[in-house]
Amino acid sequence: MDIDNLYKLFLKHNSVQTDTRHLKQGDLFFALKGPNFNGNAFAQQALDQGAAYAVIDDPTYTVPGKTYLVNDCLTGLQLLAKHHRRQFTIPIIAITGSNGKTTTKELVHAVLSSTYRTYTTEGNLNNHIGVPLTILKIKKDAEFAVIEMGANHVGEIASYCNITVPTHGLITNCGKAHLEGFGGIEGVRKGKGELFDFLRQYNGGAFVMWDYEYLRPMCKGIQRVYKYGTAETELVGNTIGEDTLMRIQFTKGHDASLSTKLAGNYNLPNVLAAVAVGKFFHVPDEKIDKAIESYTPSNSRSQLMQRSSNRIILDAYNANPSSMNVAIEHFSKQQGPKILILGGMAEMGSESLKEHQNVIDEIKKHDWKDVVLVGGDFLKLEHPYTQLSSSPEAGEWLQKNRIVNSSLLIKGSRSMQMEKVLDYLNY
Asked: Which residue, of 55, 220, 350, 351, is most buried by count of CB atoms within 10 Å of its CB?
């Protein structure tokens, strides 16, 4: 593949798009294939909508002077991103982990962008397409980049490191997520640990939550390790009280007491990571504090909202056993009537029934006004709680029971679309 000529084309038309629904005038369109579609078939449509060029891998769809033929569009996109990355000498921070990746990425970006021109992953575009697209959005004025990396099997993070060449990185945690693809918790650690393997090999730096003892051997041999946690590290911070919105007191490495807009004390490691990155890269303390306290979560992640007389924690972007249990445990400490509305967890593989049962066992440890379990493998287990098949059914249950003056935790895997429950809280 002639990457030099493709890069010259990119420099002339440096806004890349893979979806005609989001196409803008002058974009460079990559005709990617999917399980149920052939992007080449949309090349002409992209050109008609204003794309400057369409990169295709099927000569049947050639339009003279308007298409660029490659062997494979996805490979071409990734190689283009890899080539673009090598034009920069800026710090690039990679973030992966089982839980909290996107929140941590957004907090790190908020802190760094208070002082530096910083580019980052949009939303959670953290896969084999999203990672190269993020790299290709980095412009000449960049001083930092923060790249989120998701993975559901071993070898995936290593492939992203090959494209992004991170100079620094952090693993939020290694929990029970994507067990079907990783084959178990050891597979999760191996897969996420590929980031540290890369940093070790290429003399990078790592930010490590030292409370998680399993991360300590994983980062061994990395040239520079910045430790953060709740005790005996370079940066020490702990939550204050059990309020719905998390508050933090720092006792080492940073002189501050912060009030956040994040619902749930389980977000502490995410904030500590962002402060650690800010301190390491000399962001002024007052800018770190303002960035953390001003950050407002969105997209169904640790969001606190009010609907009529009910207070709702919406954490429905994703769910796995690790995040479920900490959310339940934290929510149980809130005051007043509490209602759990939990959707099933996806990609659990052979461990699914066991992990759903463990969540039920955790629920049983606490007192609730009501518990509603929705879909997934919750449907296959016996329990004393209300059992429904879908999020709309859960919404209808809320309407029928006229829930008022209560706190609700709504959580579930993305496939369950638990945020739809909110559509029924209109009484």
From this structure: 55
